[in-house]
Amino acid sequence: MTTSSSINRDQEIQNLRELIADIDSGMLTTVDEDGTLHSCPMSTNGNIDADGVLWFFIYSSSHKATEIKHHQYVNVSFVSPDRQRYISISGTGQLLQDRNKIEEKWKPQLQMWFPKGLDEPDLTLLKVNVNKADYWQSTSSFKPKTIIF
User: Fold this and answer.
1) Closest by CA position to 128, among listed 85, 61, 77, 62
2) Range with the lowest mean pLDDT among 76-85, 88-97, 121-130, 138-147?
3) What distance in Å separates the CA atoms of residue 139 and residue 31, rounded to the nearest whole number?
4) Which of 43, 59, 36 is nearest to 107 (CA)?
5) Could you tell me the pLDDT band of residue 121, with boundaries at 50, 70 and 90?
6) Category of 104 on φ-ψ map: left (φ > 0), alpha (ψ -120 to 50) or beta
7) 35: which DSSP letter?
8) Cα torsion for 4, 94, 47, 104, to the nearest 10°?
């Protein structure tokens, strides 16, 4: 049996998926050891899964992975200025080295960043559990619409 809250959540996730569907890269912001914010571009392949989770591939020995181990709170922002679309997603990051999940999420275009592909021993998934998303869809609104997960 489906409840109205799960239907609304599913609709909100679908709305968010549509907002970023044609935006390949976002800026992932993490907290550095000294408490400063650190951002870098990351490719999502425009995908949020049905549970409202963003997935990124990273090296487990990277500075980004170290930051997430120390501070799980992250933000991912997406911009499509030609469509007047701006999205800010807050959530928690989790590093996973689940081989089955890595194979499931792998896409050939990721080879440019990970030359050894699935044979890369340092390959890790960053799972971002979305807690909240704010988005703006036009220049006529300064107040964002908010999706709470």
Assistant:
1) 77
2) 138-147
3) 30
4) 43
5) very high
6) alpha
7) S
8) -110
Residue pointed to by tokens 């020995």 = 61
In the beta sheet, which residues pair with residue 38? 30
Locate 114 and state its tokens.
């990970």
pTM listed for this prediction: 0.85
DSSP assignment, residue 36? -
63 membership: H or E segment, kind and range: helix 63-70
**Mean pLDDT (whole number) for 54-76:** 95
- Tell me: the pLDDT tens digits for 23-44? 888 999 999 989 999 999 998 7
Residue 22 is given by DSSP the state T
CA 77, CA 88: separation in Å to the nearest integer?
4
